Amino acid sequence: MGHRRSEEPFMPGAGAEPSEDAVWASVPRPTPDRPTPDEPSSDRPTPDRARLTWAWRDGLAGNPAAPATVLRRLLDPPPEGAAPSSAPEVPFALVYRELPDEVVDAWIAHPDWRIRKRLADRWRLTPEQSARLLADPEPHRRWYFLVAAIGHNLLSEETLARLAADPSPRIRAELARHHALPAATAVTLAADPDPGIRAAALPHAWEHLDEATRASLRDDPDPAVRTRAALLHHRTVPLTPSAYAELPPDAREEAAEHCRLGRDLAERLTRDPDDRLRARVASNASLDTDLVAVLASDPATRWQVSVRPDLTEEERSRIPVQVGPDDRLYPLDWVLALQDDPEAVRRCATSSHPLLRRSAACAASLPQDVADLLARDEDRVVRLLLSEHCAQAPAEVLLETLRTWEGYSAACIPDHPNFPRNDLIRYADDAVPALRALALDDPRATAGLAERLSRDDAPHIRRRALRDPRLSPASVVRLLDDPDLHVRVAAAADPRLPAPVLAELLHDPATANAAAANPALPEPVMHRLLDGPPTAPENPSA
Fold first, then answer.
1. Number of other residues whose CB lies within 10 A of the CB of residue 541
2. What's the pLDDT tens digit per position in 289-335?
3. Among 208, 168, 170, which residue's Cα sits nearest to residue 188?
4. What span, in angstroms and rounded, lies between the C-alpha atoms of 295 and 304?
5. How far is CA 535 from CA 31, 34, 50, 280, 532, in A?
6. Are 531 and 79 in contact (CB under 8 A)?
7. Which of 249, 254, 200, 245 lies closest to 222 in space, CA to CA?
8. By C-alpha distance, which of 264, 268, 232, 263 is closest to 247?
9. How much is the pLDDT for 160?
10. Of 269, 380, 391, 366, whose CA–CA distance to 326 is shortest?
11. What single-letter DSSP state applies at residue 278?
């Protein structure tokens, strides 16, 4: 921002200054119609006018004090030409904030499909609101709304049933891939006239189909449907070498991992020359123990064997695998599923295999003794995951994580219910910035401490000081010139700014967005900003 060189003219008691009413009455100020006096006049707004108008709209979209009347107007286009060509139809902040129902209702009913399209991206829509979007008569639009809603699981069973009968195959095909289909909808789609839809719906519908229907699907005229039905059939019926040979090559790896393998086929696949195929077999839950032992000694498959749920801890400890602190590994689903079984999760927490312990640490809830054990684990990733996920993470591991971890989750650690909150002021001079910021949460913190930390070397501590109600308006103004962009933006949106300062920020394209997000703006000013800046008279001296 860099233009707020002096605080004094804008501080209370600094001399003659306009009243707030007078300041707000002058907002927005007129903007010239042309960039320079030498250029001919034009009906098109100057780039600065367009930038200002769009910056105001974008800032108001995120303004926490903006009333429904203002938010509703943001659904309508800005004044003609008063927006950059690259501007989205709806300000970004409006899409992901909390909105009154009347604004969402107006958005759903908006005549411009591009506006409704942005609404579909929201994750806070209710199933009823999504259903209203999906009533669009145009198939492509319904498909777009369906893709967005499925991503957030925001559909009722009634809506899903209606979509399963949609005349558009594209919509039914998208629906068939939904991972949370109700049984009735899945069964309907498994009988769809389109073979691609039948094949996609079969995994969801299979357990709900009778034997006669399953048999007919294994004899389906379409090869993709037959293949999918065969793979599902052999989840319970042993797969023979001849049946395996009939599968298309691209389905054999899936069969090797997920089908119940007959003994002859299992022996053959365990010794197959293809490393990738053997690795899939190593994860097969139906594999006999002697074949598991064979794969445990195979360098290409020992990792898959080492994380099988059916191994004893003694068997697991004999498999040589390495897990480094920087190895990014997904938690094991079967371990996460055990968090309601205290004994089973306790065994995972004491495993020699780091991934089992890391997976246990990802549980949302654990017995306290298990959480305490994982908090002392030698693997720092276990301790980090426990801090990020587990409600029973002890105070000491949370404090250690905040002290040593600089990842995206570090900011959430102090919000954990078990985070220590006593005597936080002792961290005011700590060498670790994340701990220094905690000092302001101590009830004994003073305005002087807030002022001191607003000058801290670490930008995020200066931002934290800005959120402190004890910080003076003069310091808020000073932070408008902070070297860190995020601090400057936060200062421009601070309601403690004097009205003349805020008005000036609104008229600078570099600061207009953040200033329009300031909750101190009066509602009438918000509406005038949405009208765009008035045009200055062509000859102001006339």
1. 4
2. 999 999 999 999 999 999 999 999 999 999 999 998 889 899 999 99
3. 208
4. 9
5. 5, 10, 12, 69, 9
6. yes
7. 200
8. 232
9. 96
10. 380
11. H
- Residue 6, pLDDT > 60, answer no
The confidence score (pLDDT) of residue 16 equals: 58
Q: Which amino acid is at 524?
A: P
Per-residue model confidence as pLDDT tens digits over 108-149: 999 999 999 999 988 889 999 999 999 999 999 999 999 999
CA trace torsion 290, 291, 292, 293 (10° rounding): 60
Residues in the chain, total: 542
Of all residues in the chain, the percent with pLDDT exceeding 70 is 92
pLDDT mean over 84-93: 79
Q: Rounded to 5 degrees, what angle do the CA atoms 127, 131, 132 make?
A: 125
Greater pLDDT, 53 or 269: 269
* DSSP states along 374-389: HHT-S-HHHHHHHHHH
Type and span of the H or E element at 171: helix 169-176
Give residue for tokens 């989750």.
409
**C-beta separation of 48 from 536 below 8 A:** no
